[in-house]
Design goal:
- This protein has about 550 residues and is an alpha+beta fold.
- It folds into three domains: about 180 residues, FAD/NAD(P)-binding domain, CATH 3.50.50.60; about 160 residues, D-Amino Acid Oxidase, Chain A, domain 2 (2-Layer Sandwich), CATH 3.30.9.10; about 120 residues, Alpha-glycerophosphate oxidase, cap domain (Helicase, Ruva Protein, domain 3), CATH 1.10.8.
- Helices cover about 40% and strands about 25% of the residues.
- It is built from 17 helices and 18 strands.
- The strands form three sheets. Strands 1, 2, 7, 8, 9, 10, 17 and 18 form an eight-stranded mixed sheet that branches. Strands 11, 12, 13, 14, 15 and 16 form a six-stranded antiparallel sheet that branches. Strands 3, 4, 5 and 6 form a four-stranded antiparallel sheet that branches.
- Strand 9 and strand 10 form a beta hairpin.
- Helix 16 runs antiparallel to helix 17.
Length: about 550
Amino acid sequence: MKKFSHVERKNILTRLKDEQYDVIIIGGGITGTGIALDCTTRGLRTLLVEMQDFSAGTSSRSTKLVHGGLRYLKQFEVKMVSDVGKERAIVYENAPHVTHPQWMLLPIYKKGTFGRYSTSIGLKVYDYLAGVKPEEKRKMLSQKEVLRREPLLAKKGLLGGGEYVEYQTDDARLTIEVAKKAFEYGADLLNYVKLDQFEYDANGKIVGVYLLDKLTDKPYHATGSIVVNAAGPWVERVIDLDDKVFGKSLLLTKGVHIVLDRKQLPLHQPVYFDTPDGRMVFAIPRNGKTYVGTTDTVYEGNLEHPTTTKEDKEYLLNCIQTMFPQTAIEMENIESTWAGIRPLIHEEGKGPSEISRKDEIWTSKTGLITIAGGKLTGYRKMAETVTDLISAELGKKSSQSITKDLKLSGGDFSHPGDYPIFIGTKARKLSMLGMSKEDGASIAAIYGTNTDAIIDLENELLIELDLPLPIKLTLHYAIQFEMAMTPVDFFARRTGAIYFDIPWVQTWKQPVIDYMDRLFEWSPERKEHMREELELRIQEATS
């Protein structure tokens, strides 16, 4: 069986010159990997290239919710709420190891964004549009019930609240599970490979791409019948390499999240609350931390590595102080942050928070298909729409998409209810290798039905290098089965530790670099570059 590894990456690059792809996708976020999965499961020969790591852009920097967008009801985005609301349940059914139902608390205040009556009606409509299961239908709460759930909430002006189910996710891991499933069905996927320019035929139609491997600086070429631009915030840059004609314009906005120790903001459940400037912000507990976000400001800076400013942090701290006045959280209490860029379709006269999050698709005169906008939750439906278009362009009778009922990598459960039992069973099995049951349960919870593949790696490990068994197993798996090419890939996107456990990263960063060095056989210069890159990303998250 082929492994989605650095070895297979080399193999794909070597055979590019001999392949004729039906589809070449530019962009390895959730949109691009979703399109790759839909295309390859319908029999289309598919190549995806990503100039950074998979999900390194927006798809690892979201609020980490597969959610329906309740606030879009106020903007009369009824179809979008209906579509993405239904998609939440599909993602959960197909990937319960990376999608977890959570009761979200929506406190209602005098002169707040949501009134008591409008919230009751809105949540009821939301339940109907999203096809919510009976046990997950909304609940309306009195003031006392709200404060019983979250006693830290501001009492002044509190009228009551609503409670409804959202789905918490690990956005980067969701993306990598989609990518792995596409690879399993035969798609070729490459990280750290950048589009350099397009190739055209005599009629001016795109027939291929010139690529650059950013890890070796070697050029490559691939031919394909259709090229899809799913580059997220980089969509316009890709268009600039084509005919430079774009019927719409993007508005890039920045969303920032801050991470606190949960003792600083000890919430019992996620809270979706009003801000002083009339926006809405999430406060979400996760594994001993509470993260709060997001901001929504126009962005014109570096796309590869957007940073968090002092003003961003002050804004969110002010939001916390207003809604949770009993807390005394200062700047120094912020453990880490992340900033993500939203590629929105510009709408004249509308501010960042007012612009629709719906996706739009264009085809240029050269044949380049571009998709922009959209939400993480709707990735599968967007991919289905794009693949229908591709099939029509190729003149092929389009088969039905199968992704609605297709289990993602690691999500091969008969029913999501099997997942908790599975964790206990695999935790015991992993503990027999010499780790605690707690560590075993953590691995089984994160990797789902891929846990057996992790267990099977026991005899492949480099035992002479000093790393605890749980880290060694998951690191080796990331390299051999998830195409992790750098220490940042492992710490930021395969584990999320740069955002949620900086002390753990600081403790194990050098042993992880040493382990990867042994497997990849880096030169001393390359190893030092990898160390410096990791230090920069740690500094970015903590400064």
